[in-house]
């Protein structure tokens, strides 16, 4: 009994150590990946949004995943969620191994139970992979565990009945269910293939995309950005100007270099005139100097290096009181989202730019959407009161200065 308890204590200690390591990894080493994920979605609390998600294969997994990612505005929340997902995956794997291979040694089952969550942990580091496949695998494993408690014949019948349903809710991860009825595997494989092919006649996606998982992998066709850009973007959003200067002084990215210039302005190292002259460089005078803005004498052109860079361009432009450029960048970033989702962060910026330019009706349209979110709702209510009473906008220090700068400046950028 003492040896058995010793093994249990060691297993618990190892799980605890790995869980804490995962939390620290995300919170201290990769918080910017957590933050950028939140920028890529708009989770709404309404029936229309839910039905839009579950109307495609894997929609429930996508809905739950996006519901969790909305908390990623704060890296602490994201790190806790990733650590909890590891615990759930490890426990489910351990219980399934226990049901499938009761004769195996506990230490072997425990060691094997660590492999799937560690693999999913590594996959989560890839910006092009959303949370959907992780949630899908957890849901399928939970169904599998429930089926293991049924008698073999009932389990096989239940697997055949549930497989098409689970497939529609989770996507291709449902292929794991075929292992719940090994003797009936030919039938379950046919059911899975039929579900997959049949869904291609219903969902507006090609069969290849459905087979890979509609929201399992976004691909690299749309560049989300480098880790450097993601980290700099997070620091710009948090106004950590000193950290930006110290970390990215010698960056080769035009957007990151422009963020450093903005940070020097915000810390008083350069003036506004010098900021503008270093940001807006005529094309014939650039000489290889990285810059996000260039001028040909008539209008500005903007360099969008990636999706993350577009968000940074929007943040930089709004600080420079260039609302039309900020609006264009935010819109480009939102439309560039890999899964064609909208973005709460982008809509928030579009509200600000439209209030600066006096397009209050357009701002109210975006606010009505943000009011159905979790973390933008309170801000949206505050902005709605201002948008419905424009005199209050002019009393706000930021909007007052931005509107004055916009009214007195030449609009060199056309949308």
Radius of gyration of CA atoms, rounded to a whole number: 25 Å
Oligomer: single chain
Mean pLDDT over all positions: 90
Number of helices: 22
Low-confidence spans: none
Helix content: 55-70%
Q: Helix- and strand-based class?
A: mainly alpha
The arrangement of helices and strands along the chain is HHHHHHHHHHHHHHHEEEHHHHHHH
Strand content: under 5%
Set down the secondary structure blueprint.
Blueprint: H1 2-29, H2 31-38, H3 47-54, H4 59-69, H5 75-100, H6 106-113, H7 115-124, H8 132-148, H9 152-170, H10 185-202, H11 207-212, H12 227-237, H13 241-247, H14 254-266, H15 272-279, E1 280-282, E2 293-295, E3 300-302, H16 307-319, H17 323-335, H18 344-356, H19 360-370, H20 377-388, H21 390-393, H22 397-408
Parallel strand pairs: 1-2
Antiparallel strand pairs: 2-3
Helix pairs in contact: 1-2, 1-5, 2-5, 2-12, 3-4, 4-8, 5-6, 5-7, 5-8, 8-9, 9-10, 12-14, 12-16, 13-14, 14-15, 14-16, 16-17, 17-18, 18-19, 19-20
